[in-house]
Design a protein that fits this description.
The protein is mainly alpha-helical and 109 residues long. It has one domain: yfbu gene product, domain 2 (Orthogonal Bundle). The protein is built from 4 helices and no strands. α3 packs antiparallel against α4. The longest helix has 15 residues. The radius of gyration is 14 Å and the shape is globular.
């Protein structure tokens, strides 16, 4: 749920920015989980987001939760670490967004 909340905060913050230069909207998108290696997370996310009557996190999907076809859990955990260090997690600045999305790249790269 924290991963979904983080992506929701990223989406709202990005949409609220007046100046988006240097930012790529694709980098804030929730890509789902890998169906082969993260099936439990994919199934649980589908349950949370797609259960009839569930209205939370609607802005993160268009009626389905994607199979990312690649492991995402470690990526999301690095992003969560940055998100949790923000002064106000629900009013992210452009710098906050940049810091969170930069955590997508593994530190060894």
């Amino acid at each position: 749920m924290d991963i979904l909340d983080m992506h929701r905060a990223l989406r709202f913050a990005y949409n609220g920015l007046d100046e988006k230069s240097g930012m790529n909207e694709r980098e804030i998108e929730f890509l789902g989980f890998d169906g082969n290696n993260e099936g439990r997370y994919l199934s649980y996310t589908q349950y949370l987001c797609l259960e009839e009557g569930e209205e939370r996190w609607q802005e993160l999907h268009s009626g389905e939760i994607a199979n990312s076809h690649g492991p995402m859990l470690d990526v999301y955990r690095r992003m969560l670490e940055e998100w949790r260090s923000c002064a106000d997690r629900h009013r992210l600045t452009k710098q906050d967004i940049a810091r969170i999305i930069s955590a997508r790249v593994h530190p060894s790269r």
